[in-house]
Amino acid sequence: MDTFLENAKTWLSDFFEPGVKKEVQDLIDNDTNELKDRFYKHMEFGTGGMRGMMGVGTNRINKYTLGKSTQGLSNYLKQSYAGESVQVVIAYDCRHNSDTLARTVAEVFSANGIKVFLFSELRTTPELSFAVRHLNCHAGIVLTASHNPPEYNGYKVYWTDGGQIVPPQDGAIIAEINSLSFEDINFKANDSLIEMIDKEVDEAFINESVANGNFNAQGKDDFKIVFTSLHGTSITAIPEVLKRAGYKNVTVIAEQAKPDGAFPTVKSPNPEEPEALSMAIQKAEEIGADMVVGTDPDSDRLGIAVRNLEGKMEIVNGNQAMVLMTRFLLEKQKEKGFAGNEFIATTIVSTPMMEEMAKAYGVEFKTALTGFKWIGKMIKDFPQSKFVGGGEESFGYMVGDFVRDKDAVTSTLLACEIASQAKANGSSFYKNLIDCYVDFGFYKEHLVSLTRKGISGAEEIKQMLIDFKENPVESVAGSKVRWIEDYNTATATNVITGEEKHINLPKSNVLIYETEDGTRVAARPSGTEPKVKFYISTNAKLAHADDFKKVSAELDAKIKTILAELDLG
Question: What pTM does this model have?
């Protein structure tokens, strides 16, 4: 008997609800392909926890898969904090079933004698991260699938420091979960251990966001912002944060302000996709706004559009926003004086410009695997160091360490501060970005993201990465490959000299080629979606801001050549 069929038949026992049993039996009788996709594996933790399509099955998000994860986490918490009164905090986003799934998770924790703080309504992921430490909790959970399509949901686990789980906790928790059967889940809630929370934590979080993101920029009365929450959670925080920081000209896109898990006005609620910001950009052009900001459903990513040199709204990518925000924070730190223990951080597939900036300011630069949990881990691992700020190319940024995950709430305020001050100085957000290119080198990046769904898609992604490794690229756009970084073997090899270096990061399915002129091409599978991603980074010197358009066109042409060479065009 096929394993998927064996797995499915275990869901016909009386432990499972009648409606679930009926659905499984119908699939067994009528739809083998769908049955296989739902039961051929158990959903696993990736870079963002557990995320997948909702529905019945071991490979779906539902009451039982989340219940089993929560039971395993409960067991691990009680072992780790034996003798203590264990506490957890739970938040959820706008997605279908997030509220009921959050309640189920709370009930399983309470059934295991664990005190639960449950947000009474949807809240942002950064507020959940903040709340873990604010409420002295041992762990936190947020029910979210971030920017995935409407049929998805997910389950992110945060540890005592407010950051996402990392080694060794993640492996130990997964081992505990895998040792359980569904029948081991205790669903008998102890309601006396579930406490609803809202305003008090909101107030503390908003105050900290303003304290960390407000730099008393000039020109706020004359600065116009268009904001969209893209039907997500940031509507609960960002308008209030901007108001308290002194911004009066904020236009909220009403059609996208109501939380809605169907995301009816966008193809994808992902600010990385230009279409997601189209309604807000149109409004900005109508009213002559200076900046557009849009956030994903759980408010950890932000997309920004500003006026370019021609005065038209243009979306800046995650690398560009990160560079500008980091420089601003470093300048502010420089005004106060560097203590010598400051550091900035980014990920291995983000712009190399961050390292150049760190050198210029004389601060430490740290790099991590993709996934913001690794940046959060740095703060925990180096308590003597001060985290100034950092981010990743996928539109995530973190200001200081009061939140331990990417935080679109405080980052939105910071972006507005930069742009408002620049306008007051007779410059602009966009011109400030060009100044960064002059000072640190003009780095231009491009992302290719290929979706391959289902079982066959997973195999195709696996094979593409094997091919990329086993048929090494010798040159890229006329520049000889010098280094091949294989994160699966934790080895960087200089293919010209034969030199080998150890990569001091956890092993990961990532391969990066770097050429003699600093061009980089990276490949990795997504940890949260059925995608394989290729990251291209090119660079050139920009002697003067007046040369920006010319050099930009040259880099665009180079990227086009690379795409053709790698058959990614």
Answer: 0.96
